[in-house]
Amino acid sequence: MVGSGPAGLTFARVLHRHGHPVTLLERDPSPDARPPGGTLDLHEGLGQRALDKAGLLAGFHALARPEGQALRILDPDGTVLRDWRPHPDDQAHPEIDRGQLRDLLLGPLGVRWGRGVTGVVPGTRDGVLVRFADGREETFDLVVGADGAWSRVRPAVSPVTPHYTGVTFVETSLDDIDTRHPDLARLIGDGSVGVYGVNRGLVAQRNSGGHVKVYAQFRAPLDRHPDPAGVEAVRSGLLALFAGWAEPVLGLLRHGTAFVHRPSTSCPCATPGRTSPG
Ligand SMILES: Cc1cc2nc3c(=O)[nH]c(=O)nc-3n(C[C@H](O)[C@H](O)[C@H](O)COP(=O)(O)OP(=O)(O)OC[C@H]3O[C@@H](n4cnc5c(N)ncnc54)[C@H](O)[C@@H]3O)c2cc1C
């Protein structure tokens, strides 16, 4: 298995549960090498079904936040268009922190950390050849590519490459929101708030422990990369982009601690009736 994101770990746990040995190859040097990212909602019949197959559904429900399904939608002027709160028993798509999900999935699995894969060659005499960034090579009887959007495994079976959608996210975070920013805590509620204007949006999602991730979303050329400009320059740029929006909403940007640029990419869907070359 190449990649220990949610997909690779879940599949590895399903195989492990059925007694199949799995080797997990992950580029990150350790589980905590980088922040695990924002909250994930897992839907009944989809993500929850996969966790059930891995024998981890009860573990998921013990950690998940059903109240995190709450959703508020506002106009840029601050008018509340929707304020939906789930019933306490609603398990349709509870939220879980990615780090908690990763730790749940890791369980007994052994991961070979710091093993970035550069490519695979199927059909060699000894099986599938895996090439590593450090120059080493190793063969396996089967390789599953779970290494995300920019997969180094996919080129062995498909010519498809991701393309930029034209939409960029800039992510920022707020900590200890209930104590430090009670006004913003009320704006967000127990789950998420989305504020949508023309060609731009601001979404804030509550994670556990009073941590909030904020995503400013807008159309921009791919080369518009605000990170090197520094925190205050990015903040000013975003405040200019969202100028005129309600002041409580702009508070999400005013109090963000650091900004990370995340251009949104997607892979083309399979053409109907056409199978991939692999
Ligand atoms: C803002 C945002 C919000 C989202 N919210 C939700 C949500 O609420 N619910 C939901 O279901 N989905 C959500 N998604 C989508 C979800 O994040 C992805 O579907 C999911 O992360 C994909 O998992 P993955 O394991 O396929 O890939 P990834 O999460 O990308 O993991 C890939 C793994 O492979 C490793 N890797 C990469 N390249 C190599 C290499 N060459 N060699 C070795 N290892 C490598 C990476 O380090 C990583 O650990 C959201 C996405 C975004 C951007």
TrEMBL record:
<keyword id="KW-0285">Flavoprotein</keyword>
<keyword id="KW-0560">Oxidoreductase</keyword>
<dbReference type="GO" id="GO:0004497">
    <property type="term" value="F:monooxygenase activity"/>
</dbReference>
<feature type="domain" description="FAD-binding">
    <location>
        <begin position="2"/>
        <end position="180"/>
    </location>
</feature>
<keyword id="KW-0503">Monooxygenase</keyword>
<dbReference type="Pfam" id="PF01494">
    <property type="entry name" value="FAD_binding_3"/>
</dbReference>
<protein>
    <submittedName>
        <fullName>Monooxygenase FAD-binding protein</fullName>
    </submittedName>
</protein>
<keyword id="KW-0274">FAD</keyword>
<dbReference type="GO" id="GO:0071949">
    <property type="term" value="F:FAD binding"/>
</dbReference>
<dbReference type="InterPro" id="IPR002938">
    <property type="entry name" value="FAD-bd"/>
</dbReference>
<dbReference type="InterPro" id="IPR036188">
    <property type="entry name" value="FAD/NAD-bd_sf"/>
</dbReference>
